[in-house]
Amino acid sequence: MSTSILVTRSLEDSSSIMKLTSTMAINIEGLSLIEFEAVEFEIPDTEWLYFYSKTAVKHFLAKCALSHYKVASFGQETGKYISRYAPVAFQSNADTATAIDQINRDDLASKMTFICGEQSLRSVQKALAVKTQELIVYNQKIKEDLALSNYDIAVMTSPLNVKSFFQNGGNAERYVAIGKTTATALMGYDINPIVAKEPSEEYLAKAVSKIVGKSQGEIYRKS
């Protein structure tokens, strides 16, 4: 019998997590439990754009090109996505301390506009010592009336996905969190998850493989 796994985001066939299906007896469902809504925004008068996520990039690009700005990202996955459209000046490894060092090194905080969603955590902005400018380009809300069931493993990719999972009646034997903030949200439900070493699909795949009892070297091949 295969292991049932829910990942709370849409997954491409090339995803590191989906590659596990070729070597393991598992059934993976990729399903975002939240909805993203575009919001109206004015094109910013700024030198730098700082993106927290691929979702922020997608919504910004729906209205404006990146060619007029210097661009930075929070996390490698976001940086890779941006690089399809424009050069990336720098990207952090989705680590707030590293991002702060990069921004402070060249005194960029006052020159940046942080592109985010209404419900974003704004972790980098909150840690900076100066007031920052932000641009909200989308909103998030919990999906309702989802047909969630019991899973062997639930992979949580944001605190709002955690809330939606339990609000829609989801349940799992084991949990994986993409990062510390998502892990904290799970702990609010008295759950102690495995936390991915880095907030990426590659490391989520490694965490899943650990749970199902296979060594990373046996089941995961980096593309």
Helix count equals 8
Low-confidence stretches: 215-223
Top-tier CATH class of the largest domain: Alpha Beta
Number of structurally distinct domains? 2
Q: What is the CATH topology of the largest domain?
A: Rossmann fold
With strands numbered from the N-terminus, the spatial order across the biggest sheet is: 3-8-7-4-5-6
Radius of gyration: 18 Å
Oligomeric state: single chain
CATH-derived architecture of the largest domain: 3-Layer(aba) Sandwich
What is the fold's blueprint, element by element?
Elements: E1 3-7, E2 26-30, E3 34-38, E4 48-51, H1 54-61, E5 70-74, H2 76-82, E6 90-92, H3 96-105, E7 112-117, H4 123-127, E8 133-142, E9 150-156, H5 159-167, E10 171-177, H6 180-187, E11 194-195, H7 201-211, H8 216-219
Parallel strand pairs: 1-2, 1-9, 4-5, 4-7, 5-6, 7-8, 9-10, 10-11
Antiparallel strand pairs: 3-8
Helix pairs in contact: 5-6
